[in-house]
Design brief:
Layout lengths: L1 E4 L7 E7 L10 E8 L3 E4 L5 E10 L6 E3 L4 E3 L4 E6 L5 E3 L3 E9 L3 E7 L7 E8 L3 E5 L5 E10 L6 E3 L4 E4 L4 E6 L5 E3 L4 E8 L3 E7 L7 E8 L3 E4 L7 E10 L5 E3 L4 E4 L3 E6 L5 E3 L3 E9 L3 E7 L7 E8 L3 E5 L5 E10 L6 E3 L4 E4 L3 E6 L5 E2 L3 E8 L3 E7 L7 E8 L3 E4 L7 E10 L2 E7 L4 E3 L5 E7 L9 E8 L5 E7 L7 E8 L3 E8 L10 E6 L5 E4 L4
Parallel strand pairs: 9-16, 18-25, 27-34, 36-43
Antiparallel strand pairs: 1-4, 2-3, 2-5, 5-6, 5-7, 8-10, 10-13, 11-12, 11-14, 14-15, 14-16, 17-19, 19-22, 20-21, 20-23, 23-24, 23-25, 26-28, 28-31, 29-30, 29-32, 32-33, 32-34, 35-37, 37-40, 38-39, 38-41, 41-42, 41-43, 44-45, 45-48, 46-47, 46-49, 49-50
Length: 547
Amino acid sequence: QVVIKWESTGIENVRIDYTVNNGLLEEDWFELVSSTPSDGEYETGFSVPSNLYRIRIKDVLDGTPMDACDGIFKVLQQPTIIVTAPNGGENLVSGNKTNVTWVSTYIDSVKLEYTTNNGASWVEIAVSTPSDGLYEWSVPAVSSSLCKLKISDTKDNTPSDLSDDNFKISQNQPRVAVTSPNGGEKWEAGSSQNITWTSDAVQAVKIEYSVDNGVNWTTLITSTPSTGFYNWNPISKISSTNCKIRITDVANLYSDLSDGVFSITPEAYVKILSPNGAENWLSGNLNEIRWSSVGVADVNIDYSINNGASWTTIASSTPSDGSYSWTVADENTEQARIKISDASDGVPSDTSDANFSIYKDKILRLVFPNGGEKIYLDTNIVWTSVNIAKVGLKYSLDNGYSWKQLVDSMSSTGSLRWKIPTTDTSSLVRILVYDISDLAINDMNDSYFFLNTDIPVFNVRIDNPKVSESSPERIISWESSPQIKLVKLEYSMNNGKNWVLIEDNYLSAKGSNKFIWKYPSNIDVNKIIVKVSDKGSNFYKTATPKQ
């Protein structure tokens, strides 16, 4: 700050202007303050450096009287110094040379000093050296971890700057020693572990690892401060019992290895195999929970009946041998899931990919035909079941008044091919499927359907083309009566539960017809069912590929 002074008589307030180029022209003057009491003093500051400053003062009322500096004066830029090295954390060795660096403005020469007691006393390095930002220092024969550097303007020691933090001077030569892993450790791939070491007179280190006892090395980090600590996160996904760590002084290439080998084991995991979604389990049954795991000794097993919103314990800390026999809980849910986790800390863990069902009772549902269909000749009867081993099937042509046996007993596979007798024509047909071990568990179509064997679509075949057994084509052939003009072709991959369109409104003539089907590459054409039906789906015929 600068105090401007003047004398005046008969003036209450003055305006003060300044110029940075001697003020030879009026436009060179700039207002400093528009009005201030004419008490003879005004304190201000100047931000623009110049060698041609002048001040003028005049009466606020009409600009007269006025007076200006008789001569020019200088405003210089504020000088600055900032120490850049050593600025804290360095490890210097006695007798070595190191560069002292700094940045400065408006300073011609500087004084360099150092302290070994955190600034309690100072020792001169150079009384006066050009302020060019660089000085080569021969590190003195001292030993201290409380060293700092001070740089100041030679003229009056102002301004000055110190190292931001302490650095270390040691009379020892650089040294690095790995402390962990140093042999015998077992680290898991993907985990986080600390590499540690001790060092003297080392500023930065390079860290490497080997998986073949030091034959080959892979760099973890090219340069990191020699703090004695580095977090390896995550550990590389490798597996070896011959691992070592090497730490090298970046500046002097001194290095140290792990004294012995350590191990990196595969990343631990748990993977549920069953139940993993869509299963149907009966409460009270003894079912097997299955999983695979690596790096896990014991597991906790839990189940949920609400899609994972809450969990109930099945087993705590049971061996992770891949199997556990569970007496299925007394629940009734279609949102069941299993969770298996490491018993030590819960990680890793896995949950069923999708919901499965737990039922207290057996379930049997007829899916097709379920009412309203018009069926001609053979068809697939389709049902779903839960916890039912064997079923029987009957059909009725008089809406359930009397029944004919279709199958006495068969495995509940969910589908039966029904070869319909040509004499069975009715509009009141019912199908009954039942559990042979408990006749009370049964289901039939919700309403009657129609059988009509008078208008056939018959002899549907699916053949390989003659050209090549590996060709992505099949020939669908059929014979039909003259009443059929257009047909629809479909295929099913689940025994007729769902159908996928192949071709719609395909011309069908009396007698033999064929369609060359270029089937999708993602299906097994030898395990599908093809259906040919009239345009209105009033009647149809299905077939499986010719073997």
